[in-house]
């Protein structure tokens, strides 16, 4: 099916506005005809996708089709065995990731967990200890958890732990954030709250965050949050379709009652059934 709607105006503005300076590619990352096989199992089959600067892109597809594999490919943790490869138009160190499980160190406090990646590897030399602490405090404040800075993970709810994981990713100042089912383990109420919080962080000019790529199993979540939705086919996965979401920004939870929201959800459901 052809893309069913034109791209939302504000997304285009984000993609082609202040971020797309002359001479800078309008894409953040380009995936060119990539295939990947694990042993005898072909997981990705000639996947091509341009991830545009400034967009919120969701990836939807059947379980096991290769969505997480695609994120790992984008991050550079895996390499394609065939195809033109991945072109990063933004520096690799500007790409952050948030996983479904927050993976926090249980013996470290919230603020220490956020600081940790800033204090190891090449990141360490970039900032003094005081600067790292200041950055961690800043990102903790962004996710509204300053009062919980000295709490250990087990003293925090699942939603709070995931906000710490998001703060940890934001502390490294990513321009591109990859998210692998970040809210999949949360209850519906918390999930919807964090959906909107994440959109606010994406729109917040204080963060360098510009482009989000989110794997999700939820059609509603993908429509509420995204500018475009990539539909993957069953394994070996290829890009089946790209759906443009006709909702404006800023998004609000009650937009889920709009006819454009409902018709887009219906259209995607129809496509999912036909996979
Ligand atoms: N390191 C690996 N070695 C071998 N096979 C792997 C490896 N990683 C993933 N796979 C296989 O690749 C396929 C795709 O896995 P992947 O986790 O990318 O799917 P997914 O679409 O993210 O699944 P889900 O929606 O259930 O999270 C699966 O069959 C999985 O078993």
TrEMBL record:
Protein name: ABC transporter ATP-binding protein
Keyword check for Metal-binding: no
Keywords: ATP-binding, Nucleotide-binding, Transport
Disulfide bond recorded as keyword: no
Coiled-coil residue spans: none
GO molecular function: ATP binding
InterPro entries in the cross-refs: AAA+_ATPase, ABC_transporter-like_ATP-bd, ABC_transporter-like_CS, ABC_transporter_ATP-bind, P-loop_NTPase
Span of domain ABC transporter: 29-259
UniProt organism field: Cohnella hashimotonis
Pfam families from the UniProt entry: ABC_tran
């Amino acid at each position: 099916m052809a893309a069913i709607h034109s791209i939302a105006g504000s997304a285009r503005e984000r993609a082609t506005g202040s971020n797309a300076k002359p001479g800078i590619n309008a894409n953040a990352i380009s995936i060119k005809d990539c295939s990947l096989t694990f042993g005898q199992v072909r997981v990705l089959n000639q996947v091509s996708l341009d991830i545009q600067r400034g967009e919120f892109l969701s990836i939807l597809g059947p379980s096991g089709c290769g969505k997480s594999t695609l994120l790992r490919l984008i991050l550079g943790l895996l390499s394609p065995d065939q195809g033109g490869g991945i072109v990063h138009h933004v520096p690799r160190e500007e790409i952050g990731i948030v996983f479904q499980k927050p993976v926090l160190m249980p013996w470290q406090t919230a603020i220490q967990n956020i600081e940790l990646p800033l204090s190891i590897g090449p990141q360490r030399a970039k900032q003094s200890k005081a600067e790292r602490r200041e950055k961690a405090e800043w990102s903790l404040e962004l996710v509204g958890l300053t009062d919980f800075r000295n709490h250990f993970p087990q003293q925090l709810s699942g939603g709070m732990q995931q906000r710490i994981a998001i703060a940890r990713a934001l502390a490294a100042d990513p321009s591109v954030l990859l998210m692998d089912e970040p809210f999949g383990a949360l209850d519906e109420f918390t999930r919807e709250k964090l959906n909107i919080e994440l959109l606010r962080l994406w729109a917040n000019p204080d963060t360098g965050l510009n482009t989000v790529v989110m794997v999700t199993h939820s059609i509603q979540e993908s429509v509420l949050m995204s500018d475009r939705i990539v539909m993957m086919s069953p394994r070996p996965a290829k890009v089946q379709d790209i759906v443009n979401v006709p909702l404006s920004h800023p998004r609000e939870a009650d937009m889920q009652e709009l006819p454009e929201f409902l018709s887009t959800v219906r259209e995607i459901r129809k496509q999912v059934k036909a996979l």
